[in-house]
Structure formats: structure tokens, C-alpha cells
Amino acid sequence: MEDDDDDVSQKVVKWMEMLKKGLGHELEARIFDGVQMDHVEKGLIRCKSVVPKHLSDKDGNWHVGAMATLIDAIGAAAIFSSAPQVKASVLLDISYFSTAKIQEEVEIEAKVVRHKGRLLAAVVVINKKGSTEMVALGKLWMTSSNVQHPPTTSKINPSKL
After folding, report:
1. Is residue 10 in some structural domain?
2. Interatomic CA distance for residues 80 and 99, integer angstroms
3. 83-93 pLDDT tens trace
4. Band of the pLDDT at 46, cuts 50, 70, 90?
């Protein structure tokens, strides 16, 4: 069982490294700039980052759109580590509590908290490093994206209209 967890962790780390290199979208590569993974296990990811200047707003705060993209991607990675199938986001809810300035260090934790049928939920928390001051809290629900198609032959009688 532990070998399976190690394999999943390696796949998640590889996927996140690919995003950092820009093999997904340029936006994700920019968002992951400076993100360092501290811990990856089934259903749990811990990262740290320093807010880069290119992800700030006009006031020098970490841009909320950049945080939202990071919360979505790291939450998806935590879910992928728990159930490695292609997933689709069905709900992303983020609450912002404080700001983080350029060059400020933050800690990010994504944890799978619910698995119900084909739905999985993760909570992503961003705190200022070394403090309990929360910057943002994200809740992400995902589901399997492989749609079950009905059989080609049906036992239902066709309409006679």
C-alpha cells in the first residue's frame, strides 16, 4: 500500500513540475513560479511560496486572481493524489481574509476532506508563513469527467409517433 502512495505522490509531483515548466498553460507556469512542494501524500499537499512581483496588483498585494488559480490547481492536485482519474471542477468557492505583499512568504495546504460517490472535495488554506493569519480559504469540488454513455442497443421501445 505504501508503494502505491509513493507512486501517486511521484505522479502528483511530476504533474505539478510540468505545470511549473509551462507544459499546461502559461498562466499556470506563472502562478507556480516560486512554489515549492514541502510534502505530498495521498489526499494532502503542503507547499510554500514567496509572493512574486509579477503576481501582484497595483497596491503590491498578491493578486486575488493569481491566488484563485493557485488554489484551483493545488486543490486539484490533492484530489488527483486521492483518486488519480481525470477530474472536472464543479465548484470553486474562495474566501479572502487578508492580503499578502510582494516577497511575503506564505504556506499552502490542500487536503481532501470528502469523497462521496464520484464527487471529491478539497479545502485549500493559504496562511502567512509562521503565523495563523489566514490569507485565503478555498473549497473545491471535483467529479470524474469520464461520462458513462448509454449502451448502443436499448431495451426501451422506440416511439411510434
Report:
1. yes
2. 28
3. 767 678 899 99
4. very high
